């Protein structure tokens, strides 16, 4: 799965003023990612507001994205949740089109044990015709998938090929990198730790801020993979403030406001999310000027 090396972007779902999907802006945003050097796109991850999209909307977005990309870069589909049988059915029925893998978040809200997490992913892996990327994000799911569980899954299922790690635990990252199968990949799930994670041996980043700054995120990831950390540090530091502003009032409200300033659609999000407030807007506008 060398296609997962480098910089991926969890692309937003642009909405019109009435809350419908803005496909015109989505197409332009896809082109912006490709022109900016992004290596692959994740369609309908958390940043895509998947939780508020209907099944039919998800199918339409996946199909539109595949058609618009037209094989220019690889695609990953986000299919995850806390109802195991529903996710099993979804991956069984997923029309792969040009998608090379499925990103599947660890079950949220239920707070399963480690054995429960293992059995969930076992069922998903056995049902999927595509490789699986695990996604550990305890800040959203309410439970951490331990390094031991990740390694158990990586060793037991050949189609579980990577993990997007957003636990923030460098001890956990280190354990995965030390004991993982040779071809299994650790991918950063947090923009601010891309540089140190790649320095440790991670394969890259699945980014949020890359929606707005694909060229910078791509350059950062590739410089790190080349071992040019001196130059990468400058980009890393440049992006710290704007990345913080992306998340201070929730994702993707922050990055959607940045994209609005750049001419890529509106900052409309679906409830229960709301647009960022004026203080964050003012901070974003000021930081955009510095990064221009």
From TrEMBL:
- What InterPro entries does UniProt report for this protein, alphabetically? Aldolase_TIM (IPR013785), DapA (IPR005263), DapA-like (IPR002220), Schiff_base-form_aldolases_AS (IPR020625)
Q: What class of enzyme is it?
A: lyase
Instruction: Look up the record and give one Gene Ontology term from the biological process aspect.
Output: diaminopimelate biosynthetic process
- Which residues participate directly in catalysis? 135, 164
What is the first-listed, main subcellular location in coarse terms?
A: cytoplasm
The Enzyme Commission number assigned here is 4.3.3.7
Q: Which residues bind pyruvate?
A: 47, 206
Question: Which compartment or compartments is the protein found in?
Answer: Cytoplasm
**What reactions does this protein catalyze?**
L-aspartate 4-semialdehyde + pyruvate = (2S,4S)-4-hydroxy-2,3,4,5-tetrahydrodipicolinate + H2O + H(+)
Kindly list the GO CC terms recorded for this protein.
cytosol
Q: Which GO terms describe its molecular function?
A: 4-hydroxy-tetrahydrodipicolinate synthase activity
Site feature Part of a proton relay during catalysis, where? 46, 109
UniProt site (L-lysine inhibitor binding): 51, 82, 86, 108
What pathway does the UniProt record associate with this protein?
Amino-acid biosynthesis; L-lysine biosynthesis via DAP pathway; (S)-tetrahydrodipicolinate from L-aspartate: step 3/4
Q: Which UniProt keywords apply?
A: Amino-acid biosynthesis, Cytoplasm, Diaminopimelate biosynthesis, Lyase, Lysine biosynthesis, Schiff base
- Family classification: Belongs to the DapA family.
Database matches in HAMAP family = DapA
Q: How does it assemble?
A: Homotetramer; dimer of dimers.
| Known function | Catalyzes the condensation of (S)-aspartate-beta-semialdehyde [(S)-ASA] and pyruvate to 4-hydroxy-tetrahydrodipicolinate (HTPA).
User: What is the designated name of this protein?
Assistant: 4-hydroxy-tetrahydrodipicolinate synthase
Tell me which species this is from. Answer: Sphingobacterium humi
Gene it is expressed from: dapA
């Amino acid at each position: 799965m060398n296609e997962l090396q480098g910089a991926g972007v969890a692309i937003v779902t642009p909405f019109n003023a009435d809350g419908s999907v803005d496909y015109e802006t989505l197409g332009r945003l896809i082109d912006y990612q490709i022109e900016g050097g992004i290596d692959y796109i994740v369609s309908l991850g958390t940043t895509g507001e998947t939780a508020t999209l209907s099944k039919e909307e998800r199918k339409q977005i996946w199909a539109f994205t595949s058609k618009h990309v037209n094989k220019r870069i690889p695609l990953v589909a986000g299919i995850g949740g806390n109802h195991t049988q529903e996710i099993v059915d979804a991956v069984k029925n997923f029309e792969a089109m040009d998608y090379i893998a499925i990103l599947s978040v660890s079950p949220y809200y239920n707070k399963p044990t480690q054995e429960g997490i293992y059995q969930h992913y076992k069922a998903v892996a056995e049902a999927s015709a595509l490789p699986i990327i695990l996604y550990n994000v305890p800040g959203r799911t309410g439970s951490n998938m331990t390094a031991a569980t990740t390694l158990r899954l990586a060793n037991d299922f050949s189609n579980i090929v990577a993990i997007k790690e957003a636990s923030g635990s460098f001890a956990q990252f280190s354990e995965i990198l030390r004991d993982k199968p040779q071809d299994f990949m650790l991918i950063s799930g947090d923009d601010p730790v891309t540089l140190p994670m790649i320095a440790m041996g991670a394969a890259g980043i699945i980014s949020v801020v890359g929606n707005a700054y694909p060229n910078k995120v791509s350059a950062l990831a590739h410089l790190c993979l080349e071992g040019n950390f001196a130059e990468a540090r400058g980009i890393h530091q440049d992006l710290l403030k704007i990345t913080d502003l992306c998340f201070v009032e929730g994702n993707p409200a922050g990055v959607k406001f940045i994209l609005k300033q750049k001419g890529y659609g509106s900052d409309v999000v679906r409830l229960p999310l709301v647009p960022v407030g004026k203080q964050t807007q003012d901070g974003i506008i000021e930081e955009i000027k510095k990064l221009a």
